[in-house]
Write a structure and sequence with these properties.
heterotetramer, A mainly alpha (about 325), B mainly alpha (about 500), C mainly alpha (about 220), D mainly alpha (about 675), B: mainly alpha, two-stranded antiparallel sheet, 2 strands, about 0% strand, D: mainly alpha
Chain lengths: ~325, ~500, ~220, ~675
């Protein structure tokens, strides 16, 4: 029991700690690739601290939804994160929910963000919400299918089980093709869900292009801080998901301190790698028009479906 | 046999009196008393029949069994309802100057003669006398139909007269043929047309002759029932007739004609197979049902709407009788009763609507629920009952018929024994299902048509210049009672009526 | 007896044949009053037949029937019809739904049909009046056909009465007359029917200023 | 149990008659009608619970004098479950009505409204416990009929009349199919008693069984509102008074689900070819997706909710369909799971849909309009209604840890288990269905983000909304009650699953309670914990704890800074409601992306100023989405029959000679046949 609590707390801390770092790292990589020195990797921490100290300005038109949302978003994203194995393959909260729960927890955050976007009453918020809606609705099916493809290979929808089995090299199909397709699909989904280029550009505040930023345009101070942090967390969740499902190398399959240490280090390395990858991608691609995003996500959907198909064909 | 005498004399007397008396109040009083006497007598007869079976009276002239008692019951019930309704209706016509006060005498005279004829047709022992009486109904009603003396009503009356007389003459040929066949068995006795004489020896009668006879009878009386394709007079007549008369025509006259057919069928079935008569009945039944269903769909005149729905329901009943068997026959008889109640109610409502809106165009009638709440209720209930929706009794009888249909199918033998013609063996599982499907389809069509129009009239807001609100008159009493009966019979059938129905069914089946 | 009955049946057949012939005549005849006369003639033949049967078989109640027929169908009804015709001064049938030659052909067909239908049941009949049943049916059908073919109310009435004649012939010939009460009822009905029809024709004349029943098409879908 | 039933019966009958009998003030009638309805439904709740846990099904019957008709009732767990659901919603509706019908004082007869309400509830209850086909048909039609009369309460409006008629005819068509199916059973059993349906003397042939399957699917599908038979639903449900809409959308359409389960798993003994389940599954998926898609385009709050009923019926059918497929292949556990998931969602939907309709009713009550574009900012004016509606919205969008999420999660699981199936086609189709379900649920989420956001948040968009006030206490109590039930249904599966298991076990032949519940009830783990698990309670606690953590962090880093209030930045000018994003605008991208389905037609008229063609004086914009099913399915059918009838007119040409000819020909033909 104590052990479980310790693990949960540890995982919470790791996630909270690592998420700003990821954001910072991506920014850094992009800066480098654009031949700028760029801000320090740890800049996001400073930003958060600053935002927390600032006095928040709240629109007079808003209701309690507006002020409650940041906490809900923060909580739901973090909760989702706690269901994903980070550096220990067997998360104590495994029983609380499987991968579908993760998806829907994130959806909960999205829902309230949409509401908040509408609450302020400015056109930007509404625009952001409506765009977020379409993106979300297009990512979801692809996500479920790819998840299912993965779940099949492991015969489980529980993340811990999946990761644990993979880590112990159980039930990895002889032919990795379904696996890879699912990976590709999930990666695209991750990019879309976390609002990165080419789907959305977190750095822009141009109303023509912004999605996530438009939703949270009215936020300031501690609320903004929480939302930024939640955004980072979301990124972390997806990256850990990808990292640990497809490459659970080094993750601690036992609760031996040493193993956990190794697991932590391995985790940080993997995350860092993925973050850099995202950074590179963000430099290579331009943001897509909203209505071109459908194509991209369509591709993701087809990939996931193909993964499924391959799996069955190879099995039978 | 006092009650039988009452049965015959009451209308006769009333008819006679209504020629000489000139106060409308008195006329109505006479009408009501004679009607009530009729009902009382009818109830007594029913009790006797239920207690100790069929009996003859007035020498061999009158023959009464459960079946005829059942028909008498319908005549009595609907007749009484009509008489109650007539009061306010006719008086208003006189008040509005539609008809001269003097013509009330003629009206009542004809009405009573009409009743008398129907009673005779029901109780007569001799098939011949029955024929005479039925022809008499035609002659008495034709002027009732043409009573308003408008061009349309004249036309309707004329068509009715010609078509029905022709039909009836054909029926007479059927009677002649029956006599022809019975002579060889019974010898040249004047009772050779009496049911009491015919039934015992029926199986020895010549089948060929009886086949011919039945066809003539069916076509002849079928015209009177209004079975497609002999139905053409019916919509016109019902539309033009005064509401109470229409109610009588639809509620009772049809049924008397059906009764005549059934009587004949009982005899024929002994000699020929029930499949023969059954097939014919079912054929005409379906023809009527289908045709009527489609016509109901496109009606814009509410009286014609109800006329066609009469054709439809007679069709259903005929299908029931055609299928035969305890279930089909019971359902058919029960359906006759339900239809009589629902349809007379519908025509009462129609009459009230016409009094208020002075039009038969459905399009010009709206917002009854506000203008005439009681009538609206009556119309709604009648409409729902006529489209066979629970909890109204017609639903039960219709389900009984359709159940019989699906389990027994339609007897298809009557075509096969004519050899040359196509054989329709419509009694195997799938084809009976097919027929059931057709049945249900038509039921749905009729339902849609009926409810589409009726809801259109009941709901909404009444047009300008229409008085709102409705005061309770004596005319509303029968409506309420009939409605109660329709609902009640949908759940529980009073024991006596049920026995009556069952015994009648037994009589119709070959005992 | 054998011989006499043979001759008798010959005679009866002859009379019924005459009845049939008058039918054809009526179908062919355009002038209304002539139609009515022909009908009266036919009724006369009918009386003759009935009397003959009554005489040969000795069923006396047929005499009564015959007498009534003579009274009603030979005398009263033609009178009534003549009156109607005069009052409405409709002389002749101008348009017919079926022209005369075709009409005659159809009637021929109807006769054949009648014989064909009654074939199986003829043998049952009394020797005396074997074929009259077929003829009766034929007359009924022809009368019916006349009602369809003719447009004037009066001629339709004539057709109706011809039907009645056929029925009566059937009743007398095939069954030596119906039970008396029925006979009386029938006559009564026929009489009333015709009277009512007469009244109607007047009213129709007033309302539509024509007795051409093909004008009666106000009521339809 | 008999006493409970009699109490229920008496209660409803009292509610049916008393208001009609006492021609008193509407207030009295209102209290009489809905009071007794409340009592009766209270009894219903008890009846349901006792019936659910009774060892043996409880039966009772009264023989009618009419042949075949027996008033037989049988309360087995399945029936009891639905009695419970109906009564719960019924209770809420009755309480709600006390306040809500004050709207109708003077506009409609409260006596009639109230007694119809009671009759409706009674007929629904009888439908689910009827044990005789004939009796079932009677109460079934009665249910439809009474609901029809309730729908046309405001028959002054043309659209209401249209909606009512459409509903009446559709449901009657459905009933025709049901009758046919029952008659087929009758052919086999020779009786209308359900017992004879279960064990007919001669078993139905395969063809007949298939026929029954289709007839029942069409017949009850019409009532349930499956695509393409759903068209009446978005007309009828909004037209009715809101507490009636709640009943219709919440429970009435569920009686169809009840009947489907009854026929497929009980009468047909759960023996069917795989394609039956497949058909149900596909219909479910299509209904779910199209339902939510059309809902998105609705800006009439009640129509929107009605379309969501179509969606949720689809989700339910997904569960049941999956169950049927598993049943075919003998995977009984999974079959039970699918069925259980479907039923779970049935209850949940009943609750949150009723809640939402009551919420919509409250908005209607407060603003006198159903058009979403005229709401806005209502959360401030109607805080309670707002909260309850939000709970409903979150539940229907299947967001954790609410009940909607739990049941949908179970459906997902049963779909995921498809990899146990033998045929590749099914192995692929079920996951695809899952994907469609995912799309459905996220679209639903969007739809309710719209519904709640546009209605309750930001500035009021009309004077109606500006003057809106919180609704009376009774209405709030009713909504609160349902809201609590929703939350509990989500958090306490350990209570719900055993109940459902009692329902499912007889059909599946085994109890899966032990298999579905893990960690002594604190988690759901279909099949086993290794495969999947979910603990709504844990999630709820986690969420609370973590939001607390968020607050803590905020305080920790920023201290207790107080916040400043200022008006939203409106690009330099004062923000007005006209600058807000409209519902139409909100769904614009979706309309565009799924244009293939909507086939929208847009009309834009611009009236320019004379002075310059760059400035518009007024613009008129309207867009419609193609009513595909009406245009390509219903109109042709109707046109066909009407056309045939028109062609038949010639028969009745009016010519006497023609009529005579009919008789003549008939005679001749029959004579020829007879000889």
């Amino acid at each position: 029991m104590l052990q479980a609590i310790f693990l949960v707390v540890a995982q919470t801390i790791v996630l909270l700690a690592v998420s700003p770092f990821i954001v910072g790292l991506i920014k850094k990589v992009k800066a480098r690739l654009q031949l700028r020195r760029g801000a320090s990797v740890f800049q996001p921490y400073a930003d958060l601290a600053k935002l927390f100290r600032k006095e928040p300005v709240v629109s007079t038109t808003t209701s309690w939804i507006f002020t409650a949302t940041p906490y809900i978003v923060f909580a739901s994203t973090l909760a989702a994160g706690l269901l994903v194995p980070i550096f220990v393959s067997r998360t104590p909260l495994n029983f609380a929910g499987n991968i579908i729960a993760v998806v829907y927890l994130l959806a909960l955050g999205t829902f309230f963000l949409m509401l908040a976007g509408l609450d302020a009453g400015s056109a930007f918020g509404g625009m952001g919400s409506s765009r977020e809606a379409i993106v979300a609705s297009l990512t979801e099916p692809a996500m479920i299918l790819s998840i299912f493809a993965i779940a099949l290979t492991k015969g489980s929808t529980n993340l811990s089980t999946i990761v644990h089995k993979t880590a112990l090299l159980e039930g990895i199909v002889t032919d990795p093709s379904p696996y890879l397709m699912a990976l590709a699909a999930l990666f695209i989904v991750a990019i879309a869900e976390t609002g990165r280029v080419p789907v959305d550009n977190p750095a822009t505040h141009l109303e023509l292009t912004m999605i996530h930023e438009a939703m949270v345009l009215e936020y300031s101070g501690r609320y903004l801080a929480l939302i930024e942090w939640a955004a980072g967390l979301k990124l972390a969740v997806f990256l850990s998901l990808i990292a640990n499902i497809f490459a659970p190398w080094g993750i601690a399959t036992t609760l031996a301190p040493a193993a956990m240490g190794i697991g932590l280090v391995a985790y940080l390395l993997k995350i860092a790698g993925l973050a850099m990858l995202i950074g590179v991608i963000e430099c290579m691609f331009a943001k897509l028009r909203l209505f071109r995003v459908t194509d991209l996500l369509g591709v993701a959907f087809i990939l996931a479906l193909l993964g499924l198909l391959f799996f069955y064909i190879l099995r039978s | 046999m006092i009650e039988v005498l009452v049965l015959l004399i009451a209308p006769l007397l009333a008819g006679g009196l209504s020629l000489v008396i000139h106060r409308s109040a008195l006329l109505h009083a006479i009408n009501l008393t004679s009607m009530s006497l009729l009902v009382v007598a009818e109830i007594m007869i029913t009790r006797t029949v239920l207690r100790d079976g069929p009996f003859t009276a007035l020498g061999q002239l009158v023959y009464l069994d459960a079946l005829s008692a059942f028909i008498l019951f319908i005549i009595g019930a609907v007749g009484l309802a009509c008489s109650l309704y007539m009061r306010s209706y006719m008086d208003e016509q006189v008040a509005r100057g539609v008809i001269a006060p003097g013509r009330l005498n003629l009206f009542f005279f004809l009405f009573h003669m009409f009743l008398l004829a129907m009673v005779i047709a029901t109780v007569a022992n001799s098939v011949g006398v029955q024929w005479v009486a039925i022809e008499a109904t035609t002659l008495t009603t034709t002027f009732l139909i043409a009573f308003w003396r408008r061009r349309e009503s004249l036309e309707a009356g004329w068509k009715y007269l010609i078509l029905c007389s022709v039909g009836i003459s054909l029926a007479l040929f059927g009677v002649v043929l029956t006599y022809y066949s019975s002579l060889h068995v019974l010898g040249d006795v004047s009772e050779a047309l009496n049911v009491t004489q015919l039934l015992p020896v029926a199986d020895r009668l010549n089948p060929h002759v009886l086949k011919l006879a039945f066809i003539f009878i069916l076509v002849g009386y079928g015209t009177k029932v209004g079975l497609v394709p002999m139905h053409s007079w019916l919509p016109d007549a019902y539309t033009e007739a005064p509401a109470p008369v229409a109610a009588m025509l639809a509620g009772v006259l049809e049924i008397v004609a059906v009764y005549a057919i059934l009587r004949m069928r009982m005899i024929v079935d002994h000699a020929v197979s029930p499949a023969f008569t059954g097939g014919l009945l079912a054929l005409l039944g379906f023809a009527s049902f289908v045709t009527a269903a489609f016509f109901i769909l496109i009606q814009h005149n509410y009286k014609r709407l109800f006329a066609y729905s009469s054709i439809e329901h007679m069709g259903i009943a005929m299908i029931g009788f055609g299928i035969g068997g305890p279930l089909g026959t019971f359902g058919g008889l029960f359906h006759l009763l339900n239809h009589a109640f629902a349809k007379s109610m519908a025509f009462f409502a129609a009459g009230n609507i016409h009094r208020r809106f002075h039009t038969v165009e459905i399009g010009q009638v709206q917002g009854l629920a506000i203008a005439q709440p009681w009538t609206a209720m009556a119309l709604m209930i009648a409409g729902l009952a006529l489209s066979a929706l629970p909890p109204f009794a017609p639903f039960v009888s219709e389900v009984q018929v359709v159940t019989a249909l699906v389990t027994q199918g339609v007897p298809g033998q009557w075509l096969t024994n004519s050899g040359a013609m196509v054989t329709l063996a419509l009694s195997d599982q799938f084809s009976s299902l097919g027929l059931t499907g057709l049945f249900l389809l038509c039921a749905v069509l009729a339902f849609s048509g009926l409810l589409y129009r009726i809801t259109g009239m009941v709901w909404g807001t009444p047009p300008e210049g229409i008085v709102r609100g409705e005061t309770w008159t004596l005319g509303h009493l029968p409506v309420v009672v009939l409605a109660a009966a329709l609902v009640g019979f949908g759940f529980f059938l009073p024991q006596s009526i049920r026995e009556l129905l069952e015994q009648a069914t037994q009589i119709l089946l070959l005992h | 007896m054998q011989i006499s009955s043979h001759i008798g049946s010959q005679l009866v057949d002859l009379c019924s044949a005459l009845l049939l012939l008058t039918c054809f005549a009526i179908v062919a005849q355009r002038r209304l009053s002539a139609c009515v006369d022909l009908f009266a003639l036919q009724s006369a033949f009918l009386v003759l037949t009935a009397a003959l049967v009554a005489f040969l078989t000795g069923n006396h109640h047929i005499y009564i029937a015959a007498g009534l027929t003579g009274l009603i169908k030979v005398i009263i009804i033609p009178r009534v019809l003549k009156k109607v015709i005069e009052r409405l001064n409709v002389k002749r049938e101008l348009v017919m739904n079926v022209n005369v030659p075709a009409g005659l052909l159809i009637c021929g067909a109807l006769v054949m049909l009648a014989f064909f239908i009654t074939q199986p049941i003829i043998p049952l009949g009394f020797l005396l009046t074997r074929d009259s049943l077929a003829i009766a049916l034929a007359i009924v059908l022809i009368g019916f056909f006349t009602m369809i073919a003719r447009q004037k109310a009066v001629s339709q009435l004539v057709g109706f009465l011809v039907m009645e004649n056929g029925l009566f012939l059937g009743a007398t010939a095939a069954t030596y007359g119906m039970p008396l009460i029925v006979e009386l009822g029938v006559f009564f009905d026929v009489l009333i029917a015709v009277l009512i029809a007469g009244i109607y024709t007047n009213r129709l004349q007033d309302a539509f200023d024509s007795v051409d029943t093909s004008h009666l098409t106000v009521l339809k879908e | 149990m008999l006493n409970l039933f009699l109490l229920l019966f008496a209660g409803y009958i009292a509610g049916l008659l008393l208001p009609l009998c006492c021609p008193a003030k509407p207030r009295i009638q209102n209290i009489l009608a809905h009071g007794s309805a409340g009592l009766a439904s209270g009894a219903g709740i008890l009846l349901g619970v006792t019936g659910l846990f009774a060892p043996e099904p409880w039966t009772a019957s009264v023989q009618s004098t009419l042949p075949f008709l027996t008033f037989a009732i049988r309360l087995d767990p399945l029936a009891a479950l639905f009695v419970l659901t109906i009564s719960l919603v019924g209770l809420a509706a009755s309480i709600y009505a006390l306040g809500y019908v004050t709207e109708f004082y003077g506009r409609a007869s409260i006596a009639v409204l109230g007694s119809l309400f009671n009759g409706f509830l009674l007929s629904m209850t009888l439908v689910v416990i009827a044990d005789n086909g004939f009796f079932f048909l009677i109460v079934w039609e009665l249910m439809s009929l009474l609901s029809y009369f309730l729908v046309v309460t405001e028959h002054g409006k043309a659209e209401v009349r249209y909606a009512g008629l459409f509903y009446l005819i559709m449901t009657h068509v459905g009933t025709a199919f049901i009758i046919l199916a029952f008659l087929i059973f009758f052919q086999g059993g020779g009786s209308f008693s359900f017992e004879a349906f279960r064990h007919p003397e001669q078993p139905l042939s395969e063809g007949m069984r298939t026929l029954v399957f289709l007839m029942v699917l069409i017949g009850f599908g019409t009532k349930a509102g499956i695509v393409p038979l759903h068209v009446w639903l978005p007309y009828a449900h909004p037209a009715a008074p809101s507490h009636i809409s709640a009943l219709m959308s919440g429970v009435m359409i569920k009686t169809a689900i009840y009947a489907l389960v009854r026929v497929y798993f009980d009468f047909l003994g759960g023996q069917f070819p795989w394609w039956w389940g497949f058909v149900v599954l596909v219909i479910g998926a299509v209904s779910a997706l199209l339902g939510v898609m059309y809902a998105l385009m609705e800006h009439d709050l009640k129509s929107l909710l009605a379309y969501h009923s179509v969606e949720n019926i689809g989700i339910i059918l997904l569960g049941i369909g999956a169950g049927m497929i598993f049943q075919t292949f003998g995977l009984t556990e999974f079959a039970a799971l699918g069925l259980l998931a479907g039923l779970y969602h049935t209850i949940n939907h009943a609750m949150f849909k009723a809640l939402l309709f009551l919420g919509a009713g409250s908005l209607l009550y407060a603003t006198h309009t159903r058009n979403m574009e005229e709401y806005g900012g209502l959360l401030r004016r109607m805080p309670w209604t707002g909260v309850f509606f939000l709970i409903g919205a979150v539940s229907i969008s299947a967001l954790p840890p609410t009940n909607g999420f739990v049941s949908e999660w179970l459906v997902f699981q049963s779909l995921f288990l498809s990899f146990h199936l033998p045929t590749v086609l099914l192995k692929l189709m079920l996951p695809l269905a899952a994907a469609m379900l995912a799309l459905t649920s996220v679209l639903a989420l969007t739809c309710f983000a719209k519904a709640f956001g546009i209605s309750f948040l930001a500035l009021p968009r009309s004077s109606h909304a500006r003057q809106a006030e919180e609704v009376p206490i009774t209405m709030r109590i009713a909504m609160g009650m349902l809201a609590v039930v929703c939350v509990l249904l989500g958090l306490a599966p350990m209570v719900v699953v055993p109940m459902l298991d009692r329902v499912v076990a007889p059909f599946a032949g085994l109890s899966i309670e032990g298999k579905v519940l893990a960690l002594d009830g604190w988690a759901l783990a279909p099949v086993n914990v290794e495969f999947s698990s979910l603990s709504p309670m844990a999630l709820a606690l986690l969420l609370i704890a973590l939001s607390a953590l968020g607050l803590l962090l905020a305080v920790a880093f920023g201290g207790l800074v107080k916040q400043r209030y200022y008006k939203t930045w409106g690009c330099g000018i004062n923000l007005t409601a006209r600058m807000e994003y409209t519902a139409t605008g909100f769904v614009q991208p979706i309309k565009r992306v799924f244009g293939a389905i909507y086939q929208p037609t847009v009309k834009l008229e611009t009236e320019l100023l004379k002075e310059s063609r760059y400035f518009a004086k007024r613009r008129h914009f309207e867009f419609h989405i193609e009513p595909v099913f009406q245009k390509y399915l219903y109109d042709p059918v109707v046109a066909f029959f009407i056309g045939m009838a028109e062609r038949l007119r010639v028969i009745q040409g009016g010519s006497l000679h023609l009529y005579l000819a009919y008789i003549f020909v008939t005679l001749i033909v029959l004579l020829l046949f007879a000889v």
